[in-house]
Amino acid sequence: MSIKAIDLEKAARELGFLKINQRGGHARWKYLDVRATTIPIHGDDDVGDWLAHEILEQLGITEEELLELL
Fold it and tell me: What are the Cα distances from residue 51, in Å, to 5, 32?
């Protein structure tokens, strides 16, 4: 499944994560508990499958739940 960074950012926002920092092409998102993730922002490119899976795991959701949020 191809996932865009903008979709991951939208999901993070919907889940209550806050963007706390962005340097260059990487945005750091943090939740009120200890969860946090970094989402690469590289234009309209897809996030690699492995990295997208890791980010979804850090957000605490599955690909199916991501699709429901979008």
Answer: 11, 23
The residues near 41 (Cβ < 8 Å, ≥ 6 apart) are 5, 9, 22, 25, 26, 27
Domains and CATH numbers, the chain: 3-65 (3.30.920.30)
For the stretch 24-33, pLDDT in tens is 899 999 999 8
- Structure-block tokens of residue 19: 């963007």
Residue 65 and residue 3: Cα distance in Å, rounded? Answer: 13
Residue 33 pLDDT: 87
CB-based contacts of 29, cutoff 8 Å, min separation 6: 9, 12, 17, 18, 19, 20, 36, 37, 38, 39
